[in-house]
Amino acid sequence: MAEQRKMPAGLKQATELGPLIIFFAAYYFGDLFVATGAIMATTLIALAVSYYYTRTLPMMPLVTAVVIMVFGGLTLILQDETFIKMKPTIIYALFAAALFAGLVMGKSFIKVLFNNFWDLDDAGWKKLTIRLALFFLAMAVANELVWRSFSTDIWVNIKVFGFTAATFLFFISQVPLITKHTKHEETKTDG
Fold this sequence. Notes:
The chain is mainly alpha-helical. The chain has helices spanning 9-29, 32-54, 59-78, 82-104, 109-114, 122-149, 152-173, 175-181. The protein contains 8 helices and no strands.
């Protein structure tokens, strides 16, 4: 097995946000079709860079990449913006479905993703999973409402800035839950 390398922190953020930033820039310097090709290419590059360092392909970025390739490919081949506009809806709906399915099976898939960051009790993981699944459902509905009701310019701006801000605010709003359900190790004193 190949040796895992430590990914520099800045590079990690670049692989996570880079495709979205490139999408936005390509849209404003080109059009939605140029932006679609750009996000497809940068997503593959981000996955390759991540794999180079971690020697694994994390499930969420991998699923996102597959959906981007399928819907981006349909957008470019058919020259129809509808497919790339539906992509966030599909991704959010898939993530929500996976989280709910995990709960039905008695598992918290986000525990696997975030247990390196937080050490929560089982009740905390369950509550966070439910909240995140509901958030993903709300984001899927929001994307559908925006792309079907507004211009492409407005959709791109909301997708890049609004959805990113909503995700940030969602996780900030979960700090009290995370704090309340963080496991505290018992400190042993001698004597």
